[in-house]
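Table 4 source record.
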Amino acid sequence: MTLLSISKILKIKNIKKYKNKIITINGWIKTLRNSKIGISFIDINDGSSINNIQIIVKKDLNNYNKIKKLTSGCAIKIMGIIIKNKKTNNYEINVNYIKILGKINNPKKYPLSPKYHSLEYLRKISHLRSKTKLFGAISRIRNTFIFNLHKYLQSKNFLLINTPIITSLDTEGHSKMFNIKYKNNNFFNKKSYLSVSGQLNLESYACSLSKVYNIGPIFRAENSNTKKHLSEFWMLETEIAFYKLNKIISLSKNILSYCIKQTLKHNKQDIYFLLNFNKSNNINHITNIIEKKFIEIDYYKIINILKKQKIFKNDNIRWGISISTIYEKFLTEKYFKNALIIKNYPKKIKPFYMKTNKDNKTVSCIDILLPNIGEIIGGSVRENDINKLDKNIKKNKLNKKQYNWYRDLRKYGNTPHSGFGLGIERIIMYITKMQNIRDVIPFPKYPNYSNF
């Protein structure tokens, strides 16, 4: 007997290979229909594909009376022979053995009955929502994308470095961080927090191993309830020695293009199902990224564009302001109608670790913005001149002693290097066109909500 996944069965090209062979599948019942002539038609799914496979159960099966009473959600093991339905051209399985592996105790109270459930309702049962077609598709897409991040970076000789989740340092300088305490005491004998980024730690390894990355959770204690913010989320972070800004831009585009292309290749049905769910019927937003159709533009040019727009005539648009969400939406969705790479922001609105340009007003950095999402990647050349770094630390009113180990990287080697971070949930939102970031992470955490 051969144990097969549903995804493998649906990809069978030569059915003769399995002629008269008994195969085994484990899965969950999605729907069950009993006919008057003593035949039951059961759709099952094992999570490997968005598509179910139909199994045909006849009344001469020894436990047929038990099987026909099963409901959606029950787990079963089946053995049978694959056939091809000549009318539908779909694969089906004629069953000769079924074992019940798990029952629904009270079918009437089963939270995922075969009917429409709102996304808000499903968030309340995040431990069960992966059983739905929608969240099964999101999970497979997320898996493929992250797997290919690893695959691409490993193929380019990047080393995976696991950075700390617990830290005593604020990477950004003025982030809102979750404080860690044990019985009202500082467990580590100093103030400690959940990390907002592993960047500074990665920099230390880039300055000896050249090309490093991490994919892990980070935490922000911002009281933000928007559709694009979480208190806990996942990021790819890279740091590369001897890279300048142009190489960071190239690497960012290559990673996005490769990983999205592979996700489309391996999860096409999942993607189309989700696009249809979100009332979209084309993949232009995906192909644009695969084909690297980005517009590169300097910050000052963006400010000049915004100044000329009548809809913003009452806004105090000037050099030195942050590009707010409303401006990001206008630029990516109406003005350029494209993905944007904005370069060389004013020094005063960016973190202390970014390298100052020759004009002494801007820093060598990028933000990559995508339509309907906003910022997806932020990166920069890192300041490797210790004197300039110290000035930045002082200007930002940071505690110099806390950053002594980070300063050591400039004292002992002074290696030029660059890096960037990519938000995993935001890129999954972009691919799937899901409207709320809480629906593209397995167990969302946000203000006033930390279940599971």
